[in-house]
Recover the amino acids of this structure.
C-alpha cells in the first residue's frame, strides 16, 4: 500500500534531520581539520600561514600532551571500574526484597541529575574541603590530620566526583537488566542447590554481559569529555596533574589563543573517540537487527 | 521457620540498602540542609539540623539576580527540546513507518554524530559564534543544544514509534482513513506517551549540559550551569549561599528525573536496554 506519494512524503519528513546533522558534522570538523594545518593565533589573526604538520608535532612533543592522554585514560578507567563494580553490587542489592525500596531507589539515582558544576562545587567545598569539609570533620573527630584532597590527590578526587555522578546510571541500567532475568531460571538453579556465587557467575553475569558492555561504552563516550568537573575544582592543576585531553585543548585554544595547536589536539580527540565509537556502534547495531 | 528466615533477610537487605543510599545521597542532602543555615552556622563544622533561615536564598537572588540565570536555563532547555522534537518527530515517524533499505544506516550514522567530542569542534564553533554575534545569545545556545541532542531524540522516538503495531494502520486504511486521518486519529494518541518521555529526558540533558553552556556564554544568556561554575573562584566564605544556589539549580531537574527513571534507561542506551 506504500504508494509513490507516501514514499516521497517519508523522504521529505526525514530530510531536515539528515540535512541538519550533515551540516553539523561536516562543517565544524572540516574547519578543525583545516585549522590544524595552519599557524593561527587569535592574538595575531592577520598572520595566518600554512603549518603542515607542525601543530601535531608541537602537540606531540609537549610533555603535557602525554600526561593529558594518560590522565584521560585514568579518569575513564577509574570511573568505569568504580561504577561497573559498584553498579553491579548495588543493583544486586536493590533486586532483593526490602522495605522502602522506592525511596532507596530515588536516593541512589539522584546524583545523576545533578549538573556537573554543582556536583563538583558541592564535593569541593562541602565534602572534601580541608578546613570545612565533612571528610575533614570526620578526620578531626578521629584525631587525624585532614587531607587536602585537591592538592594532594587531584586526579583521584576528580575520579571520585565523576564516579559519584555515573554510579546511578550504571546501577539503574544493570538493575533494569537484572529484573528481566527469568525468575524460573533462578528458581531452577536454586532448587539444584546452586549457591549465591555460582548463580552469580553462571547465570547472572552472562545475563548482564550485554548491559555491562552498553554501560561501559556509553559512559566512555561521556567520560572522554569530562570538563566542568575539572574546571570547577582543580582547573587542571597542580601543574598538569589533573589536565585531561579536553581540558588541554581548552587551555590551548581559549587561554593560549593557539587555534592551530588546539585544532590538532581536537583531531587527536576525534581519533580517540572514534576507536570507542566503533565498538559501541557494533553493540547497538546488533540490537537493531533483533 | 522459612518465614522467619526471609524476614531476617529482608531486614539485613533493608539496612544495607539504606546505608548505601544515604551515603550516595548525602552530598545532595547536606547541600539542602546547608542552604537553610546562616553563613556562620555553615562553617561551624558538621551539623545536620539547620536553623531554618532562608536568608541565603534571599541573598543569592539579591546579589546575582539568580532568576535571570534560572530563566535562561528554562528557555534554553525547553526551547532546544521543542526545536529538536519539531525536526525529529517527522524523521523518526518516517523511519519507523516507511522504512527503506537505508534506514538502519541512516540511524547508525545519526548516532555516530553524537560520538564527536565537543572539544574537537570548540575552536570552529567558537569562531563561528563570535563572527555571527551568536556568542552569549540564547538563540545560539538553543540551536547548539538542539543539534547535540537531536540524535538521541530521533533514536528514542524511533524506538517508541516502532512499537506501535502496523496492523492498526492497516485496519484504519481498510476502514478508509486518509493518511491525514491515520496520523491524527490513530497514530498520534499512541505516540504521545513516547513523545512525552523523550521530551522529559531531553530537558534533563539540556539543563545539565555543562560544556557549551559554559564556554559560549558570559552574562546575558548564561544558564545555571555557567552561573554555578562562576562560583569556582571564591570571594570569601559563601557555603550557605552556594548551597542555596545549588539547591535551586538542581531541584526542578531532580524531581523530573525521579519521574522519568524508566525512560532514562531506554533513552540513554539508545534503546539497547529496556
Amino acid at each position: 500500500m506504500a504508494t509513490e506519494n507516501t514514499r516521497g512524503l517519508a523522504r521529505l519528513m526525514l530530510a531536515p534531520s539528515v540535512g541538519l546533522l550533515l551540516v553539523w558534522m561536516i562543517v565544524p570538523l572540516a574547519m578543525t581539520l583545516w585549522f590544524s594545518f595552519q599557524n593561527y593565533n587569535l592574538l595575531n589573526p592577520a598572520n595566518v600561514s600554512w603549518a603542515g604538520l607542525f601543530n601535531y608535532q608541537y602537540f606531540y612533543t609537549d610533555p603535557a600532551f602525554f600526561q593529558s592522554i594518560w590522565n584521560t585514560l585514568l579518569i575513564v578507567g577509574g570511573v568505569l571500574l568504580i561504577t561497573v563494580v559498584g553498579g553491579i553490587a548495588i543493583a544486586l542489592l536493590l533486586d532483593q526484597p526490602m522495605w522502602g525500596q522506592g525511596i532507596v531507589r530515588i536516593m541512589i539515582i539522584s546524583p545523576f541529575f545533578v549538573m556537573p558544576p554543582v556536583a563538583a562545587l558541592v564535593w569541593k567545598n562541602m565534602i572534601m574541603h580541608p578546613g570545612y569539609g565533612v571528610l575533614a570533620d570526620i578526620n578531626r573527630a578521629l584525631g587525624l590530620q585532614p587531607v587536602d584532597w585537591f592538592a594532594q590527590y587531584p586526579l583521584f578526587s576528580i575520579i571520585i566526583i565523576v564516579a559519584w555522578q555515573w554510579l546511578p546510571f550504571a546501577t539503574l541500567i544493570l538493575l533494569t537488566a537484572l529484573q528481566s532475568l527469568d525468575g524460573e531460571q533462578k528458581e531452577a538453579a536454586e532448587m539444584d542447590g546452586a549457591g549465591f556465587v555460582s548463580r552469580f557467575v553462571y547465570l547472572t553475569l552472562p545475563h548482564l554481559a550485554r548491559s555491562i558492555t552498553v554501560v561501559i561504552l556509553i559512559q566512555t563516550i561521556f567520560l572522554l569529555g569530562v570538563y566542568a568537573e575539572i574546571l570547577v575544582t582543580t582547573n587542571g592543576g597542580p601543574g598538569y596533574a589533573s589536565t585531561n585531553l579536553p581540558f588541554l585543548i581548552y587551555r590551548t585554544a581559549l587561554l593560549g589563543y593557539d587555534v592551530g595547536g588546539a585544532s590538532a589536539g581536537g583531531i587527536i580527540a576525534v581519533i580517540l573517540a572514534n576507536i570507542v565509537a566503533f565498538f559501541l556502534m557494533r553493540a547497538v547495531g546488533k540490537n537493531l537487527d533483533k | 521457620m522459612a518465614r522467619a528466615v526471609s524476614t531476617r533477610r529482608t531486614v539485613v537487605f533493608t539496612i544495607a540498602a539504606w546505608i548505601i543510599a544515604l551515603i550516595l545521597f548525602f552530598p545532595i542532602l547536606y547541600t539542602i540542609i546547608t542552604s537553610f543555615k546562616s553563613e556562620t552556622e555553615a562553617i561551624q563544622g558538621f551539623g545536620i539540623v539547620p536553623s531554618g533561615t532562608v536568608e541565603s536564598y534571599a541573598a543569592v537572588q539579591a546579589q546575582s539576580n539568580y532568576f535571570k540565570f534560572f530563566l535562561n536555563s528554562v528557555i534554553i532547555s525547553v526551547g532546544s527540546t521543542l526545536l529538536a522534537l519539531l525536526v525529529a518527530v517527522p524523521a523518526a515517524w518516517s523511519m519507523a513507518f516507511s522504512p527503506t533499505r537505508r534506514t538502519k544506516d541512516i540511524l547508525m550514522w545519526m548516532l555516530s554524530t553524537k560520538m564527536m567530542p565537543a572539544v574537537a569542534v570548540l575552536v570552529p564553533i567558537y569562531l563561528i559564534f563570535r563572527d555571527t554575534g551568536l556568542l552569549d545569545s540564547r538563540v545560539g545556545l538553543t540551536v547548539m543544544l538542539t543539534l547535540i541532542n537531536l540524535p538521541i531524540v530521533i533514536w528514542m522516538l524511533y524506538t517508541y514509534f516502532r512499537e506501535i503495531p502496523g496492523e492498526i494502520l492497516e485496519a484504519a486504511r481498510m476502514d478508509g482513513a486518509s493518511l491525514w486521518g491515520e496520523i491524527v486519529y490513530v497514530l498520534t494518541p499512541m505516540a504521545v506517551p513516547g513523545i512525552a518521555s523523550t521530551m522529559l529526558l531531553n530537558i534533563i540533558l539540556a539543563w545539565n549540559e555543562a560544556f557549551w553552556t559554559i564556554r559560549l556564554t558570559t552574562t546575558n544568556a548564561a544558564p545555571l550551569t555557567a552561573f554555578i561554575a562562576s562560583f569556582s573562584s571564591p570571594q570569601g566564605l559563601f557555603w550557605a549561599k552556594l548551597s542555596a544556589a545549588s539547591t535551586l539549580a538542581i531541584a526542578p531537574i531532580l524531581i523530573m528525573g525521579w519521574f522519568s527513571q524508566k525512560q532514562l534507561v531506554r533513552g540513554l542506551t539508545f534503546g539497547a536496554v529496556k
